[in-house]
Design a protein that fits this description.
two-stranded antiparallel ribbon, eight-stranded mixed beta sheet, alpha/beta, 221 residues
Length: 221
Amino acid sequence: MEKHILIVAGGKGLRMGSEMPKQFLPLKGRPILMRTIERFYQYDPQIGIVLVLPKDQQAYWKELCEEYAFSLPHLIADGGETRFHSVKNGLCAIPANNGLIGVHDGVRPFVSIDAIQRCYQEAATKQAVVPVIEIHESIRRITSSGSQAANREEYKLVQTPQVFSARLLKKAYEQDYSPAFTDDASVVEAVGIQVHCIKGNRENIKLTTPFDLKIANALME
């Protein structure tokens, strides 16, 4: 079955406290984004990779590719105003309506090969899957009058790649944008499709703050 992955990297590094977009920050000598792309190539060298980047970052990315001799094949699509619009642009770079399309955050370089494989295998039959992990801390729900304890067993932390039937995902992205779309699963659910949760991997953190970068360097050790 034909497989594709959209790697969305539109960060500006504001929460990271860096002038450089976070996806370009070095992680043990190589930009985070390169390590993320490499992980999917390790999973399947034949997977179609589409990198979604803001236009004003594309020239710098090409410079980095030359500097680090990064030659893994990938297409580049223009980032949009929101993540929704970025993914929609990325989908236009994939002509196929058959097979599977995953969407992954460019600053999640620690997704495991096993987790990627589970996502694509399950999506082949279930059409829409997201990797999740358990919540181990106690949680509280904020209300207008204060807060109250919530049952953590009823909640999961959502990761990427979120993988879908290509035809289904493209159809879902034909609808108008809504602020309620927090990820691709929410876009798909809005057209009445059930999303299935499968096991992710705890190391698959999203690098958005300086503390996350410290964890990332520790994981690289």
